[in-house]
Design a protein that fits this description.
It contains 19 helices and 2 strands. The protein is mainly alpha-helical and 443 residues long. It has a two-stranded antiparallel sheet.
C-alpha cells in the first residue's frame, strides 16, 4: 500500500507532501481547504457565528486566497494585484449577490458593528510612525521635504487644471481624487480620510470610500509605470542615476547605515506586543477625546499625536518596539482581510464600474506625472540623483507599504525603502491632516 506522504518505491514525495509545499497566504493548501470547507459548511447549515469569529474566518480566508492569486497573475502582480483583487472581487460578489447571506452577516458585524477597520487603523498609525528610526525620520524628511512639497503642489495644480478641462469642479478633484492618491494608501490614508470627511460632510463613509479608492488604485499603477520608465532612462543616461543612491555625495548611505538596528532586527517580544496593542488603542481614544475640544476628527488627531510623540522622543523605546511589532503583525495578517471587508461593504460595484472613465484616469495620471517630474527636477537642483529623487517622490502616490514595495521593485531600488516610507507615511499623513482641515474650513 502506498503512503500519501512518500512513494516507497520511488522515494519521491507523495500527494500530501507535495500539497504541503504550496501555500495560500501562510497556510498550506490542505489546511486552507479544510478551514474553507468548515466555514462554508457552517454557513450552509446556518451555524456560522454572526460575530467576529465568523467574520474573521470569512475575511481572512478570502483575503489570503485573493492576495495569493493577485500576487501570481502576470503583469497584475506588478501593479498591486493583491490589493486590487481583494477590493474588486468582494465588491463584485456582493454586486451580483454571490456571497452567502450568513457570510455577509458575519462580515458586516465584524467590519461595521465591531469596527475592525478602526482597530486596524489604530495599529497601523501608531506602530508605523512610532516604529520609524528617529534619525532617518528627521533627517530623511528634511532631505525629501522640498521634493515632496513641490511635487504635491504640482500634482494639485496640474490635476485640478486637467479636471477643469473635463468638467470636474476644483473642490471635487482636490478632495476626492488628488488627496486619496497622495494620502498614503488605503489603510493609512483613505480610511481616516473617509471617517473625517463623513463627520464633516454628514455623509455615509461607504459612499466616500467608493469615491476615493479608484483614484488611489490608478495613481499607484501610474507611479509603478513611471518608476519603470525612470529606471530605463537611467540605464541609458548613467549620469542621472545613482543606481540606488539618492544623494550624489553618498551621504544617504551613512544615514541609512544604522537604520535596521532600532526595531527591525529586534527579537519578537509577546509582552511588548500586548503593550503595543494597548498603546495603539489609547492613541485612537486620545484622538476621539481631543476631537471634542478641537472639532477635528479623531483619526486625524491620532496621526498628529503619534508624529509629535515620535519626534519628541517621549515614548520609551521598548513601547515603540511593542507598537511596531503589533503593527507588523496586524499589517501582515489582516491587510488583505480588511481590504476584502472594504470591498464588500464600502465599495459599491456599480459605482466602481462607473468611476473608471477616460477623464478620471487622465486626472489621476496627470497628477502623478506632475508629482514625479517635480521630484526629478527638484532632486537635480538639490544635488540628488534625479532618477532616485523622482522614484522616491513617486512613492508619495503609492498604496502604502505595499505600493512602496511595488514601485521600488519595478525600479530595482528596494534599498530606498526608508526614504519611500517617509514619502508615503509622513507625506501621506500630512496630506490627510491638511485635507481634513481644509474641508472643515471650506464646508
Amino acid at each position: 500500500m502506498k503512503s500519501f506522504a512518500m512513494d516507497k518505491q520511488s522515494g519521491k514525495p507523495g500527494l500530501a507532501s507535495t500539497l504541503l509545499q504550496y501555500r495560500i497566504g501562510p497556510l498550506p493548501v490542505p489546511v486552507f481547504l479544510v478551514l474553507a470547507a468548515i466555514t462554508v459548511l457552517a454557513a450552509l447549515n446556518r451555524k456560522l457565528p454572526n460575530d467576529m469569529i465568523g467574520g474573521f474566518a470569512v475575511l481572512m480566508l478570502l483575503g489570503f486566497l485573493l492576495g495569493e492569486v493577485g500576487a501570481r497573475i502576470p503583469l497584475l502582480r506588478h501593479i498591486g494585484g493583491s490589493a486590487i483583487l481583494c477590493l474588486f472581487v468582494p465588491s463584485a460578489l456582493i454586486g451580483y449577490d454571490l456571497l452567502h447571506a450568513d457570510m455577509l452577516k458575519a462580515l458586516t458585524t465584524t467590519m461595521k458593528t465591531a469596527n475592525l477597520q478602526y482597530f486596524y487603523i489604530a495599529c497601523l498609525v501608531a506602530g508605523s510612525i512610532l516604529g520609524m528610526n528617529h534619525r532617518v525620520l528627521v533627517q530623511g524628511f528634511m532631505r525629501m521635504f522640498l521634493p515632496l512639497l513641490v511635487g504635491t503642489i504640482a500634482a494639485v495644480v496640474v490635476g485640478m487644471l486637467v479636471g477643469l478641462a473635463f468638467g470636474y469642479s476644483p473642490m471635487h478633484t482636490f478632495f476626492f481624487i488628488i488627496v486619496p492618491i497622495v494620502g498614503g494608501g488605503i489603510g493609512e490614508g483613505i480610511l481616516p480620510l473617509s471617517i473625517g470627511y463623513a463627520e464633516i460632510l454628514g455623509r455615509s463613509q461607504d459612499g466616500l470610500i467608493a469615491m476615493m479608492v479608484p483614484a488611489a488604485l490608478v495613481g499607484n499603477v501610474v507611479a509603478i509605470l513611471a518608476s519603470g520608465i525612470l529606471t530605463w532612462l537611467g540605464e541609458r543616461r548613467p549620469g542621472i542615476s545613482g543606481n540606488g543612491v539618492l544623494v550624489r555625495s553618498g551621504d544617504d548611505q551613512a544615514l541609512l547605515h544604522n537604520e535596521h538596528n532600532e526595531h527591525l532586527d529586534a527579537p519578537l517580544n509577546l509582552s511588548l506586543m500586548g503593550a503595543g496593542l494597548l498603546i495603539s488603542c489609547a492613541f485612537f481614544i486620545l484622538g476621539s477625546l481631543l476631537s471634542l475640544y478641537t472639532g477635528i476628527p479623531g483619526p486625524i488627531l491620532m496621526i498628529v499625536a503619534a508624529a509629535l510623540l515620535k519626534v519628541s522622543r517621549v515614548v520609551p523605546p521598548s513601547m515603540e518596539l511593542g507598537a511596531y511589532q503589533m503593527y507588523k503583525f496586524v499589517s501582515s495578517n489582516l491587510t488583505f482581510a480588511i481590504l476584502v471587508g472594504l470591498g464588500a461593504l464600502f465599495v459599491s460595484w456599480k459605482d466602481l464600474a462607473h468611476a473608471f472613465s477616460l477623464a478620471y484616469v487622465a486626472i489621476c495620471a496627470s497628477a502623478v506625472v506632475a508629482l514625479v517630474l517635480s521630484g526629478y527636477l527638484v532632486g537635480k537642483w538639490l544635488n540628488m540623483y534625479p532618477v532616485e529623487a523622482a522614484i522616491v517622490t513617486a512613492c508619495h502616490s503609492g498604496l502604502g507599504g505595499t505600493g512602496d514595495v511595488a514601485i521600488l521593485s519595478a525600479a530595482n531600488r528596494i534599498g530606498l525603502m526608508p526614504f519611500a516610507q517617509i514619502s508615503t507615511r509622513i507625506g501621506g499623513a500630512l496630506m490627510v491632516v491638511l485635507a481634513t482641515l481644509l474641508l472643515k474650513w471650506f464646508h
